[in-house]
Amino acid sequence: DTGVSQDPRHKITKRGQNVTFRCDPISEHNRLYWYRQTLGQGPEFLTYFQNEAQLEKSRLLSDRFSAERPKGSFSTLEIQRTEQGDSAMYLCASSFPTSGSDEQYFGPGTRLTVT
Amino acid sequence: GNSVTQMEGPVTLSEEAFLTINCTYTATGYPSLFWYVQYPGEGLQLLLKATKADDKGSNKGFEATYRKETTSFHLEKGSVQVSDSAVYFCALSENYGQNFVFGPGTRLSVLP
C-alpha cells in the first residue's frame, strides 16, 4: 500500500515532555499538510509544505510547535513542552495539486495524550 | 475568513432511508467543495468533490451539487446502508488547496 503513513499511531506523554511525529506522504505528492483534530470537531489546519518549503502556518501553531520537511519527502512535527491542551489527533495529508482542484489524501493520524 | 457549517448530528436512520446532510459555506472566492468520510477506526477518505458551480459530485450512491447561489453543497443518498455509518465532513479549498477548511462533521448511524 502506498498511501500516507504516520508514526507513531499513539503517543502518551507527560506534560512538559517533547514529542515528535513523522509523516510519509504518497511518493509523487509535492504538498504535505498537518492538521489537528479534537473529539467531535473537524480537522484544523496547522501548516503545509510545498516540496521542502513551509508556505503557510496557522495561528494555531504556537512557538512550541515546529514542522520540517528537509528533503521534500517525509515530514516531522515536533511539540515542545507539551501541555494537556495539546491532546488531540494529529493528521497528515498529501496532495499533488492540478488545475481546478486539490484532493488531499489523509494518513491514519497520531493520537497524542498528554497526562 | 472561510468557513463551513454542517447540520448537527448525530443523524440516526433506518436502513434504506433517504439521507440528506446539509452543508453551507462562506468563502471569499470560488472554492472547490468536498465531502470526506471517516469510518470507525479509519482515516479520512475523500467521498466526492465538485470544483465549480452546478457541478455534481457522486460516488458510492452519494451525490452533492455545488450551488453557488445558496452557497451550499448538501450530501444526499437515496437508500442508506448500515455500512454507511460514519462521520461525514464537508470541506472547501481555495487557491488549489492552500486554504483547506473543514466543517465540524456529522455522525451518521444507520440501524438495520
Characteristics:
heterodimer; A: 115 residues; 0% helix; 49% strand; globular; B: 112 residues; mainly beta; 6-stranded mixed sheet; 4-stranded antiparallel sheet
SSE topology:
The complex is a heterodimer of chains A (115) and B (112).
Chain A: E1 5-7, E2 10-13, E3 19-24, E4 31-37, E5 44-50, E6 53-57, E7 65-68, E8 75-79, E9 88-95, E10 105-106, E11 110-114
Parallel strand pairs in A: 2-11
Antiparallel strand pairs in A: 1-3, 3-8, 4-5, 4-9, 5-6, 7-8, 9-10, 9-11
Chain B: E1 3-6, E2 11-14, E3 19-21, E4 23-26, E5 32-38, E6 44-50, E7 56-59, E8 62-65, E9 75-77, E10 86-94, E11 99-102, E12 106-111
Parallel strand pairs in B: 2-12
Antiparallel strand pairs in B: 1-4, 3-9, 5-6, 5-10, 7-8, 8-9, 10-11, 10-12
Structure description:
The complex is a heterodimer of chains A (115) and B (112). With 115 residues, chain A is mostly beta strands. Helices cover 0% and strands 49% of the residues of chain A. Chain A is built from no helices and eleven strands. Chain A has strands at residues 5-7, 10-13, 19-24, 31-37, 44-50, 53-57, 65-68, 75-79, 88-95, 105-106, 110-114. In chain A, the strands form two sheets. In chain A, strands 2, 4, 5, 6, 9, 10 and 11 form a seven-stranded mixed sheet that branches. In chain A, strand 7 (65-68) and strand 8 (75-79) form a beta hairpin. Chain A is globular and about 40 Å long. The mean pLDDT of chain A is 91. Chain B is mainly beta. Chain B is 0% helix and 53% strand. Chain B contains no helices and twelve strands. Chain B has strands at 3-6, 11-14, 19-21, 23-26, 32-38, 44-50, 56-59, 62-65, 75-77, 86-94, 99-102, 106-111. In chain B, strands 2, 5, 6, 10, 11 and 12 form a six-stranded mixed sheet that branches. In chain B, strand 10 and strand 11 form a beta hairpin. Chain B is globular and about 40 Å long. Chain B starts with a strand and ends with a strand. The model of chain B has no long low-confidence stretch (mean pLDDT 93). The interface between A and B is medium-sized, with 28 and 25 residues.
